[in-house]
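Illustration 12: Polyhydroxyalkanoate depolymerase.
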Amino acid sequence: MLYHLFEAQEAWLARLRPAARQAAGLLRGSPSRPPLRHAAALLELAESLGTTHRKPEFGLDRVRVGGAAVAVRQEVVRAAPFGRLLRFAKEGVAPGPRLLVVAPLSGHFATRLRDTVAALLPAHDVHVTDWTDARCVPLAAGPFGLDALVAQLIDWLGALGPGTHLLAVSQPAVAVLAATALMAEARHPARPRSLTLIGGPIDPRIDPTPEAALARALPISWFEAAEVATVPAPHAGMGRRVRPGAQQMAASVLADLPLHLAAQLAQWQNLALGQAGAAAAHRRRYDELLSVMDVPAELYLDTIRRVFQTAELAEGRMRWDGRPVRPEAIRDTALLVIEGERDASCPPGQGSVALALCRGLPATLRHHHLQPGAGHDTLFEGAAWRREICPLVAAMIRRRG
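Figure caption equivalent — predicted structure in token form:
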């Protein structure tokens, strides 16, 4: 029932947008008067209402390398039911160190990391985990929980081979650190040369956010009943249990409502005053935020239970395929933990726990950076990412060969 409500809302808003666009055009074509401009701006705002499951494009077809424009093509290196290993291949230049960027699997497409990839691409051979909308994955593909995510990362690192560097943004931090630890203990030849964790909740009990406190206060049965829905026909994933992307987006907006309301007010002013550049930038950002994907219920519930409620990895009690996960087994993978001073999603301290867990690493291979004044998103997109954080990542990768 819940999923049908989200779909009905999405379909209704899809019909509303063209009408709002047409009415706004008519008002803008009328003699220029402030009330008409303001009404047109409100109608244009209505175009951006509601979520969609349309996957955006990365749009990274050219990059500047050494002052020259270089063509970029997307290649699928490996395909699996729940995602693709995607490479951004540069034509006619040396690819640079191989880097796997692990995107969050928490309600948005991997294109959310467009700015992350764009900044890394000139100097690195960038690969990305391009996750699939769970409502498009047939039930026959089976479940996909935290253990399956770890297994998928190990498989893709194995496919890329020795010398690969690894970077994870936000949600997959625990899975990425676990995969690295398991590969290190097994002396896997493709274990990563370096690992960067950006805004990742290794131990969300530290300075817990309201969402983390709620996750610990409520039983897992509540989340299963209130946050999980079944994909209906005619989607390919019919019958699969998921955490709907629209529900994730609604929770995100409610958690940061004043910020989103201020952004919409600013956009109304941009439109009313004819500030085309600022309006276009707002549209690009919200088009990305409102493009959502469903998350496998197993992964969502595992994250609540095993990361937020019991903090298995931080407590030293995590197991994978019957094997204990021991971060202390990591001995030759350089580790860089990046946190934001004002990160409301993953406050400082939650990620830097990884440095203590990886006590088998010499101090010269453990690094921490606290970005002054940075919120969560600004750790991987925008000016601070491009000018300060990305160069730190690139420097560590260069040092590790």
